[in-house]
Automatic annotation (TrEMBL):
<dbReference type="GO" id="GO:0006423">
    <property type="term" value="P:cysteinyl-tRNA aminoacylation"/>
</dbReference>
<dbReference type="GO" id="GO:0005524">
    <property type="term" value="F:ATP binding"/>
</dbReference>
<dbReference type="InterPro" id="IPR024909">
    <property type="entry name" value="Cys-tRNA/MSH_ligase"/>
</dbReference>
<dbReference type="InterPro" id="IPR009080">
    <property type="entry name" value="tRNAsynth_Ia_anticodon-bd"/>
</dbReference>
<dbReference type="InterPro" id="IPR032678">
    <property type="entry name" value="tRNA-synt_1_cat_dom"/>
</dbReference>
<keyword id="KW-0436">Ligase</keyword>
<protein>
    <recommendedName>
        <fullName>cysteine--tRNA ligase</fullName>
        <ecNumber>6.1.1.16</ecNumber>
    </recommendedName>
</protein>
<dbReference type="GO" id="GO:0005737">
    <property type="term" value="C:cytoplasm"/>
</dbReference>
<keyword id="KW-0479">Metal-binding</keyword>
<keyword id="KW-0862">Zinc</keyword>
<dbReference type="InterPro" id="IPR015803">
    <property type="entry name" value="Cys-tRNA-ligase"/>
</dbReference>
<comment type="similarity">
    <text>Belongs to the class-I aminoacyl-tRNA synthetase family.</text>
</comment>
<keyword id="KW-0067">ATP-binding</keyword>
<comment type="function">
    <text>Mitochondrial cysteine-specific aminoacyl-tRNA synthetase that catalyzes the ATP-dependent ligation of cysteine to tRNA(Cys).</text>
</comment>
<keyword id="KW-0547">Nucleotide-binding</keyword>
<feature type="domain" description="tRNA synthetases class I catalytic">
    <location>
        <begin position="54"/>
        <end position="352"/>
    </location>
</feature>
<dbReference type="GO" id="GO:0004817">
    <property type="term" value="F:cysteine-tRNA ligase activity"/>
</dbReference>
Length: 555
């Protein structure tokens, strides 16, 4: 009886959770994922990741409302969640079942269709395809199941009918349906994710301004609408779409009344996610629907300026990728935290680009060392490298398990890279064949394999492509090996020509011949420089050292 009073005396209880009255948490058997802790927006702290089924993680992720091209703020969110998914799958052996929705019915879509004199389906299909293409360009893995609102109208109306039957929703004169928050808080908790601002103010259509729309009556005969069993021709409200598709859609054999992880941008935390939780608790008659709420903070422009379509200061993903690479953006994500607001600046992108260069040079130097020192002992401190490798592997697993701390994990990998490069560059070979084994080769190859797997696991595509091309040197009858050999031979020939040019001494020739010698040297070196620049334009960068030349791919 006290709970309705709390609503009526809203100002007195402002900023507090409205809790259930004597209702205990349902007993859901949970399985802890060893070593993986996540920050849960419900508990406001890091907690061990729990799943309902052993080694299977169910995950619902809020997708876009497709009325325009996705921008880099969206990219920040989806790339970060993709990194999390890769960590779960690759480092903690979870079988991730991920569902993402596409909101293809919305006021903004309808308005866009009116403005462009198109059917709403044409508008939503156009931007849905563009969004999926953007995700592919960013190397974001596809969700296990993709759901579109327009395909799930029967499930949505069935969901609403259940809430109406339980008197947890009510219809209005125009056929709209609203969630009955007064009735809900008599049984369940509201304000789990954010302190609830109670109100007694009536809105134009609903009984209470806190009541949100489950079904919106059609405003005109031209807009998309459906006729449910209670009458009231119209379309779904925003919050009900996700609840229905995650709870009673084609994936109900996995999800149903429990989802292990639900994620989205921090701007969706309230009211969208709070209302999703309330709807599902009401429908399934449970005190809690989501195990872990995970929210990504925002990507801002330089100076902390919010990115917004209304401010007309967004940059589409397609536009961004015309100047920068997907790997630069992903590396920027890896070097930061998903829970911090991130400023998109030239400095942050340069930091990411510089790190990618470090990785590429490391690959080239390892490759050169492995190719040229197989038959000879070297002064590489193999014990130091292998010990550091074991320590780094342990640190990476520890950091990734600490709420996906990729910044610290990547920093640990960087230290190993720099140590290995130092050993390679300071090494010299003993002029005799190795008798039994070459520990230097084993150590460098082991580090290279670890680094390649780390970046491959986290989705850095160009680094992975480079490694696939450069490191499969023992494969046969493969295009990659053939291409690598051709480049090797060409670079070696150029290196020999360059060394010959550098060896020309004008003082060793007669005066008349000296000018010719100097001229020949200049011509050869100029030709070598020109080839180097031409190859760079084609994505191959040569690095001239004192007596050798290494190469790597660049974007």
């Amino acid at each position: 009886m006290a709970l309705p009073l709390i609503l009526r005396l809203g100002s007195q209880y402002c900023g507090k959770r409205i809790k259930t009255c004597g209702r205990k948490f349902s007993s859901v058997p949970m399985n802890s994922v060893s070593g993986l802790n996540v920050f849960d927006s419900y508990s406001k702290k890091k907690t061990p990741l729990l799943t309902k089924q052993p080694n299977i993680l169910t995950w619902y992720i809020c997708g876009p409302t497709v009325y325009d091209f996705a921008h880099i703020g969206h990219a920040w969110c989806y790339v970060n969640f993709d990194i999390m998914r890769r960590v779960m799958e690759q480092y903690f052996n979870l079988n991730v079942i991920q569902v993402m929705n596409i909101t293809d019915i919305d006021d903004k879509i309808i308005q866009k269709a009116i403005d462009e004199k198109l059917d709403f389906k044409e508008v939503s299909n156009k931007y849905e395809m563009a969004f999926l293409k953007d995700l592919d360009s960013l190397s974001v893995q596809k969700p296990t199941v993709l759901t579109k609102v327009s395909d799930f109208i029967p499930q949505i109306t069935s969901f609403i009918e259940t809430l109406l039957h339980r008197e947890l929703a009510y219809s209005t004169d125009d056929g709209s349906v609203y969630f009955n928050l007064n009735a809900y808080v008599k049984k369940y908790e509201y304000g789990k994710l954010k302190p609830f601002q109670a109100s007694t103010v009536e809105s134009k259509n609903s009984k209470n301004s806190n009541d949100f729309a489950l079904w919106k009556a059609a405003k005109s005969a031209t807009e998309p609408s459906w006729t449910p069993s209670w009458g009231g021709k119209g379309r779904p409200g925003w919050h009900i779409e996700c609840s229905a598709m995650a709870s009673i859609s084609k994936t109900s054999f996995v999800f149903g009344p429990w989802v292990d992880v639900h994620s989205g941008g921090i701007d969706l935390l309230f009211p969208h996610h709070e209302n999703e939780e309330a709807q599902c608790c009401a429908y399934h008659e449970i005190p809690r629907w989501v195990g872990h709420w995970i929210h990504s903070n925002l990507l801002r422009l330089s100076g902390g300026i919010k990115m917004s379509k209304s401010l007309k200061n967004t940059v589409s993903i397609k536009e961004f990728l015309q100047t920068y690479s997907a790997d630069q953006f992903r590396m920027m994500c890896l070097l930061s935290s998903y829970r911090n607001d991130m400023e998109l600046t030239e400095a942050s992108l340069r930091l990411a680009s510089d790190f990618l260069d470090v990785v590429r040079v490391f690959i080239a130097e390892c490759r050169f060392f492995l190719r040229n020192n197989t038959m000879f002992q070297s002064s590489i401190d193999s014990k130091l490298l292998l010990t550091s490798l074991v320590e780094t592997e342990s640190m990476v697993k520890k950091y990734l398990g600490d709420d996906f701390n990729t910044a610290q994990a990547t920093s640990a990998v960087r230290k190993l890279i720099l140590l290995t490069r130092k050993e390679i560059n300071n090494s010299n070979t003993v002029n005799r064949k190795a008798t039994n084994h070459n520990p230097g080769i084993v150590a460098v190859a082991s580090v290279l394999n670890f680094v390649s797997k780390y970046f491959s696991n986290l989705g850095l595509t160009s680094a992975v492509a480079t490694l696939q091309l450069l490191c499969n040197m023992h494969s046969v009858n493969t295009t990659e090996t053939d291409a690598s050999s051709i480049i090797d031979n060409f670079v070696e020939f150029r290196s020999q020509v360059r060394q010959c040019a550098l060896a020309i001494k004008s003082n060793q020739q007669e005066k008349n011949d000296s000018a010719d010698g100097v001229n020949t040297k200049k011509i050869l070196l100029t030709a070598c420089d020109r080839i180097r620049e031409d190859l760079k334009l084609k994505g191959i960068q040569l690095k001239d050292q004192e007596k050798t030349t290494t190469w790597t791919f660049v974007k």
